[in-house]
Amino acid sequence: QQQVKQSPQSLIVQKGGISIINCAYENTAFDYFPWYQQFPGKGPALLIAIRPDVSEKKEGRFTISFNKSAKQFSLHIMDSQPGDSATYFCAADAGNNRKLIWGLGTSLAVNP
Amino acid sequence: EAGVVQSPRYKIIEKKQPVAFWCNPISGHNTLYWYLQNLGQGPELLIRYENEEAVDDSQLPKDRFSAERLKGVDSTLKIQPAELGDSAVYLCASSSGNQETQYFGPGTRLLVL
Asked: In order along chain B (113 residues), what is the average pLDDT of each group of 10 residues?
């Protein structure tokens, strides 16, 4: 049973456009929601993370929006660049359990 | 600061053969994770160590998989015997203290023929 559902599976965006990836979770005990970015042949790397006490967190062109009541969170990439082409994973953890539950990933391609 | 080091980067073996992967975490990181990642999917936790203690190995197929972190630093993951379905990328990650950020190595890509 997948506890973190991620969509879309793949996404194609034009350079300069906005990329949006969505995740939904079921376990209300989750209190840490990171997004990881993975390039081919590399391990995942933390991109940005949020906790439920805020509804939005922005770091540069990357923003997490969090909706606690809907149990959903999303990643927005503004002014998408070809260098952003990668696979993005959302994840969730409960009470610093250190057991991240991962989404299935979204393959993003940004066309020049 | 050096990142998480894994070796080998690639391994091709025939089924029923043994294989071992090595991981050296970031210096000072007491928590070490081994993940399995199939193509097009997210990482799946196999085992987590706090120092030398395996605190979560519930997803480790213990009939063929084993792991050790004897001195609480580097770690080895072994498969014996390997099966065709074990073909995947094996990722190692580490984290420090109460920090939740996990730092991943580049992974070992295993192909079982």
From this structure: 92 97 95 94 93 92 94 94 97 88 95 97
